[in-house]
Design brief:
two-stranded antiparallel ribbon; 2 helices; alpha+beta; single chain
């Protein structure tokens, strides 16, 4: 996919983004950020810079949790594969 300029609206501002991401993915990300920023504003935070930083921190925290969970799943899968390989070796020895 080649870089294209796409427009998204976040917190009443339009941004032109040059990206190779799909329009659907970029729009989904922009909608997520927009909703989070509006939620922070509705919670009483008025400073737009503070809202943006808090939303970025919240999303980064969620990403890190997901990455940690994925790493745990990968480790579990690796252990299961090793166990199955050992089982297969034992069964092969029995033949």
């Amino acid at each position: 996919m080649r870089n294209e300029t796409q427009n998204v609206s976040i917190f009443e501002e339009t941004y032109s983004i040059v990206t190779d991401e799909s329009a659907e993915l970029l729009q989904h990300a922009a909608t997520l950020v927009d909703e989070r920023m509006k939620g922070a504003a509705q919670a009483g935070i008025r400073d737009q810079k503070k809202i943006a930083v808090l939303v970025a921190l919240q999303l980064a925290s969620e990403l890190l949790k997901e990455e940690a969970q994925s790493e745990g799943v990968r480790a579990t899968n690796k252990a299961i594969i090793e166990w199955l390989e050992r089982c297969n070796a034992v069964l092969s020895d029995l033949e």
